[in-house]
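Schema walk-through. Below, the input block comes first and the output block second. Nothing else is stored per chain. Lengths vary across the set, and this one has 500 residues.
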Amino acid sequence: MIGLIYPSTRQVAFSSLFYRGIRNKLIDEGIYHGSYYLERGEVISDSKRGLTRAKALFISLPYEIMYRDYAELLLKLGINPRTREQLEDTIIVAGGPAVTANPAPIIDLVDAVIIGEIDDIFDDIIDILTGEGTKHSRLRKLAETSGVLALRYSSIPVRRHYVRDLNTYNIFLDQKLPDNIEPVWGKSYIVEASRGCGRGCRFCMEGFIFRPKRDRSYDTLRALVDEGVRQGFDKVSFYSLSFFDNPAAERILEYAIGHGLNTSVPSVRADTLTDKRIRLIADGGQRTLTVAPETGSCRMCKAINKVISKDLVIDVAEKALSSGIRSVKLYLITGFPHETEEDYNQTIELVKAMAQVHKRYGARLKVSLNPFIPKPVTPLQWAPLEDLKTLRSRIKELRKVAGRLGNVEVSAYDPRWAVAQTVLARGGREISALVVEWARRGSGLGHFRGALKTVSLDTSQYTQPLPENEVPIWHKLVEHPYASIDVLKREYRFYKMMFS
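--- output ---
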């Protein structure tokens, strides 16, 4: 029997296409052991057998901060996350974008890591995990599977596994929800339109680790929409890094809307939005349009390789609000390497202009401001995290501007959490001790700082620039097709040339 660990709430877990699909597939195949969640510091489970009786456990770790939550979940169940001696026959397999990019911080807290995508190797993995043999013999077999890193048995580096044709594999078909669960974005059938991205934004981890870009065909998308209707859903959420980069995007939206379905397109680039596409989004019942220019500075948008002009964003907002969209949400990043106060002032000017457009329609502008975090397997992985004083100052400035404008809501990611995320993202195997100590102490930032002292780690070794002549640990453990260290170095040099 195989169980699932999702170290967050049930509401968040069932918002995940992977979690929802894998859970139902295990149930359908009669090998579902149960799930374990972490809610308000307590472990919640639908299993009557107990964690230690599972033959294997899948753990989904899409974000680095969840490493701590996973360790807390095990501790709450009386299990030492580092030794896991109570799980003598149970194999824990981790997966997700964060661990695909850099498995080092978590590798000593699990038995194996899926490096990349699981669609076409899922059945092989299940056969091994549920097969005969000892834990060690099953791990040896697991290490022979493409894209699986089992540290004691794998040949390093492990090549990241990816599915070549998304139309061939649809293992997340069954997305039925328990009656008492309401996902974060409401009850909808999730359709993955594309995977990967060919845009090459230099800060975007998912854009690089899921290369190459692959699209599902119109016929496949239509079959998925029909499957959602068959399961009783009246809303479809189309998931991808940039939805309208799929040539079938318009047609499938028209198809879904024409069959009376509500639709949601959470990920769009402003430079892919035409008048027709904006109307389709509105016709599908979506009332908030999210665009992510990241910056209002022309200089910075060229440097990060996401050239979306201020005028284009304003034009999109005007057309969206006039088409029935109630609000445009603006995602922004500050703290990019070499970003100046003048660059940031241009971002502030973009917010002001967007607020004026919203004011004409009696609408409120929502702005999310996040510190730039140097993520592994990106051209900016060698860059530093901006100092806290600068980040706090810029957040404070935007909040003051929003207060004067009156119709702008600002949410900002605490720079102190950005430090924690950077440490977990760019760390090596030493981070496992930090994760466990942090989990023992509690979930807050004060507990994070206390854990750092106990394990004798300094955040500066992770937040400062990385030496370009050294190979980071993640490139030693994982070989990323289409995102080799040489490719990333070349892109980083192009970035720096913008400022020379």
